[in-house]
Give the backbone structure.
Amino acid sequence: MQVLRTVNHARFGSRLGLALILAMLVWAGSTSFVRAAGYWTCSGGGWLAVGDPQHTMPQKLCGSRLEIPGTQLACENAGGKWGRAGLFPKPICRMPTHDGGRTCADIGECDGLCLAALTPAQRDLVIKRQKLPMQGKCTPHMPVFGCMALVKEGFVSGLQCRD
């Protein structure tokens, strides 16, 4: 009788141990401990890798900004398109970016914005305020309108809507 109790305790102990190990693995794999993809940051006039970026160094000059002209003549002379965009009643300038379509992991890497394309399931997670490690693509022009998943420091942590 004593031998059977010992065997049953051993089985219970090993099952409990396996359950604890499984719970720890699930917990460790939760989004709060997921590491971001590496990204590039502008520092001291040059690009500095943060983590291990899996994409090439940004093409734009470190610290540069895309200027969006405020008049039709200046817009067209700079290569932009003048007209209505988004919900604005007045025409504005939409400037092409030099790095549109390039892989990015932070908005600072792009002339425009770094946007991720989310699946419906990923969108639901972001709406529930979960951070998702992701890369994105640089926008082909600026400004951009609609609800967007901005990539910052290797994560999408929310949606931003611009109309």
About this structure: The longest strand covers residues 155-162. The mean pLDDT is 83.
